[in-house]
Amino acid sequence: MPQKVKLADKLYDLFSQMIASGEWAAGSRIPAETDLAHLNRVSRPVVREALIRLRADGLIGPRGRTGNYVLVDGDERDAGYRPIENVADLIQVFEFRFSMECDIAALAAIRRDDSDMNEIRKAGLTLMGEASEDTFGDVDFRFHFAIAKASRNAMFVSTMSMLRRQIEFGMRLVGEFKQGKPANRVETVLEEHEAIIDAVSRKDADAAHAAMGEHIAMSRRRLLGFELPVEWQRSSHFVSNYNHYTENKDLGRHEA
């Protein structure tokens, strides 16, 4: 089944290309939403969604009340990861996410504050009210991105931003190929989100690591319809050891 491309995605790609090519140069003010809607023959909400994604990627930003400005040169923009072309690419994305996001969740549990928890809860539960076949990937990504920000590691945040298209693509495919009612799918994902939220809230790094792993593994299974064999699995003591290391800054230092 061919993947439907949303108007906001097309517009996001167009605006991104204009930044990358220098047509929208660093420091320049981009046209107002109404003008962009008129020029591209779309509604303002479509334009707004594309601009929100550009802001989330750090490509544009507001300056007071004068509008949005380009924040980066075309040469400075992250190249990102190559597009998904087949099932093998999707499997690799899930494998990479499993390796990275489980650690992100563990660190978020250790480092998060009350403000982070509010954002994580809001993003995790938004799925109930806003998710549809077209927006499922975007809404789910917000939750994973909120977890990444709570890890207090800018490299994780940047990498998640670069993976956004691949993650959303996979989530939309899950939405298309999943058997059963959409409401059941949302309820299932909400339960998985709640397990992660609970572990991060309790500052239980081991449980957060495990809950995120379960969520990503189940997302992969929902897409593929079968389990992949486990070729290698990290020791269950890894997160506890890492937590112990971060809490004891002098561990591993040699005395003079």
Task: Count the beta strands.
Answer: 2
Helicity, as a percent range? 55-70%
Strand content: under 5%
Structural class: mainly alpha
Overall 3D shape: globular
Q: Give the CATH level 1 class of the largest domain.
A: Mainly Alpha
Please, how many helices? 11
- Say what the CATH topology of the largest domain is: Four Helix Bundle (Hemerythrin (Met), subunit A)
Write down the secondary-structure element order: HHHEEHHHHHHHH
CATH superfamily of the largest domain: GntR ligand-binding domain-like
Alpha-carbon Rg, integer: 20 Å
Q: Structurally, how many domains make up the residues?
A: 2
User: Which second-level CATH architecture of the largest domain applies?
Assistant: Up-down Bundle
Describe the largest sheet: 2 strands, antiparallel
For the largest beta sheet, what order do the strands appear in spatially? Answer: 1-2
**What integer is the average pLDDT?**
78
The N- and C-terminal alpha carbons lie at a distance of 65 Å
Describe this structure in words.
With 256 residues, the chain is an all-alpha fold. It has a two-stranded antiparallel sheet with strand order 1-2. A hairpin with a 5-residue loop joins strand 1 and strand 2 (68-70). The radius of gyration is 20 Å and the shape is globular. It folds into two domains: 7-76, Winged helix-like DNA-binding domain superfamily/Winged helix DNA-binding domain (Arc Repressor Mutant, subunit A); 87-247, Four Helix Bundle (Hemerythrin (Met), subunit A) (Up-down Bundle), CATH 1.20.120.530. The protein has eleven helices and two strands; from the N terminus they run H-H-H-E-E-H-H-H-H-H-H-H-H. It holds the Pfam family GntR.
